[in-house]
């Protein structure tokens, strides 16, 4: 079992929201707030879903680079 602490929790949440956004862009919906709305309000992203996804891809690449 893996235990996430501190910064790892935020990184995992951001990566989860990235995957949720990708599914929303393919047409999947969920109850409650969309990942796009959460990313805009809590993390301050601006622009279209595509632009937000490209910014998240850059962040993901940085996170993966840090873990190596």
Tally of separate domains: 1
Q: Helical region count? A: 3
Query: Radius of gyration from the CA trace?
Result: 13 Å
Strand content: under 5%
Measured as a percent range, the helix fraction is 55-70%
C-alpha geometry: globular
Structural class, from helix and strand content? mainly alpha
Number of DSSP strand runs: 0
Biggest sheet statistics: none
Mean pLDDT: 91
CA(first)-CA(last) distance: 20 Å
Which consecutive residue ranges, at least 5 long each, have pLDDT under 50?
none
User: What order do the helices and strands follow?
Assistant: HHH
Description:
- The protein has helices spanning 7-25, 35-43, 49-67.
- The protein is an all-alpha fold.
- It is globular and about 30 Å long.
What descriptive keywords fit this protein?
68 residues; mainly alpha; 69% helix; globular
In short:
The protein is mainly α and 68 residues long. It contains 3 helices and no strands.
Secondary-structure blueprint of this entry?
Blueprint: H1 7-25, H2 35-43, H3 49-67
Helix pairs in contact: 1-2, 1-3
């Amino acid at each position: 079992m893996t235990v996430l602490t501190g910064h790892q929790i935020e990184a995992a949440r951001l990566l989860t929201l990235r995957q949720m956004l990708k599914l929303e862009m393919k047409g999947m919906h969920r109850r409650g707030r969309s990942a796009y709305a959460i990313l805009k309000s809590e993390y301050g992203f601006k622009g279209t879903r595509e632009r937000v996804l490209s910014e998240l891809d850059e962040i993901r690449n940085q996170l993966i680079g840090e873990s190596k």
